[in-house]
Amino acid sequence: MQSTTLSVGDPIEGRCTKCRKNTNHIVISLKDDAPEKVECQTCSRQHKYRPPTVAKKPAARKTTKPKDADRKQWESLRPEMESAKAKPYSMTETYKLNNLIDHPSFGLGIVQRVIGSQKVEILFADGRKTMRCQ
């Protein structure tokens, strides 16, 4: 365990500017009881003390579960959908609001919103998807 008061010659962990990682250092000089200058034990370079960096947590993955509101809306619209009237999905087609779509991967869906000239938002059983179109 490291003591609370440091002195010249004590080992300390810090970020080395040459190695670009956290390494063990030796304190060379102090200023107000804090390390000012240190020497890296890996590359022997002397530099200003920099505290060790903390590893970042990996970004959390987004889940594709449908929201409760989307699920309720899908359940209310599902009885009115007739799969025989559904248009097969194609990126080269144009779609209008409330068009019934049959997607090869997601199944039946209904166009909820037209986004610009080349995208539509479609409500499927497993949630909303933004799809490309003509």
Structure report:
It is a single chain. With 134 residues, this protein is mainly β. 7% of the residues lie in helices and 40% in strands. The protein has one helix spanning 68-77; strands at residues 11-16, 21-31, 34-40, 46-48, 87-88, 100-103, 107-115, 119-124, 127-132. 11% of the residues are buried. The model has no long low-confidence stretch (mean pLDDT 87). Residues 65-85 have a biased composition (Basic and acidic residues). Residues 48-87 are annotated as: Disordered.
How do you describe this structure in short?
By secondary structure, the chain is mostly beta strands.
Structural class of the helices, strands and pairings? mainly beta
> Which strand order spans the largest sheet, edge to edge or round the barrel?
5-6-7-8-9
Largest sheet: 5 strands, mixed
Q: What's the helix count?
A: 1
First-to-last CA distance: 66 Å
Outline, from the CA principal axes? rod-shaped
Strand content: 35-45%
